[in-house]
Sequence to fold (270 residues):
Amino acid sequence: MDILLDILSWILLISGSFFTFTGAVGLFRFPDFFSRTHAASVTDTLGAGLILIGLMLQAGWGLVLAKLLLILVFSLLASTTACHAMAKAALKSGLKPLTYSDQENSAEETTSKH
Amino acid sequence: MKHVLALSVMLSAFWLINSGHYTPLILLFMVVSVLFVSSLCHQMDVVDGESQPLNLTFTIPLYWLWLIKEVTVANIAVARCVWKGADSISPSVIKVKANQKTDLGIVIYANSITLTPGTVSIDLSDNEITVHALTRETAADLLTGEMDRRVCKVEG
Fold:
């Protein structure tokens, strides 16, 4: 039973790390601020969530489990609020989101130049 | 009154979880500080149905389960976009209507939108939420209005 729990916990920790890493890569790959916030929210939700759940399985029943659960709940609430605050601040200070039609136009422009 | 009571219970639970020392002296400190903070909040008049939404106690766990499922699905979709590269995304800005009756309901809806990767609520005015969507699929998912309906149900 213990070994089963260990295996499950490791699977969760590794997949959590993978999603955290994916979020970090997304920050570099996506073209503008607003699409980067989506990559950051991958790190916040499934990345942090899976790692914390993996740690909960290691902790066993007790106070540590309850504390990890609190960390999960508060980090989810705080990260969404922070994400919205950042996006709203960017919008209010005049940053225009890059939209799909813009991208198509710029693609056409670059092809016509060639 | 029941909101003050709920706040006291929550604060006590929070203390007990974070302390881990259950000696009489520490527990006395807990009682004193909980009473102090509760009365302070009561004096400031911030303890009401909005800060202690007791009416959501039984309806929200089911919504959370559904939200966790949605967030997981959306995460995988966005992660796929990350690895495919910037060509696979089609960002757009859409407006959705929030049909919730209370401010709290609208905030729950807007926060759920932000929590789901692929959609971020970037502005909120009256009953209209401006959303930045990463791909056309995430925008279409949101426009079906299922999340809106479910938050309305949570509100009761």
Q: What stands out?
A: Strands of chain B lie at 92-97, 119-125, 128-133. Residues 12 and 78 of chain B are 39 Å apart (CA to CA). Chain B touches chain A at residues 14, 17-18, 20, 71-72, 75, 78-79, 81-83, 85-86, 89-93, 110-111, 114-123, 130, 132, 134, 136 (CB under 8 Å).
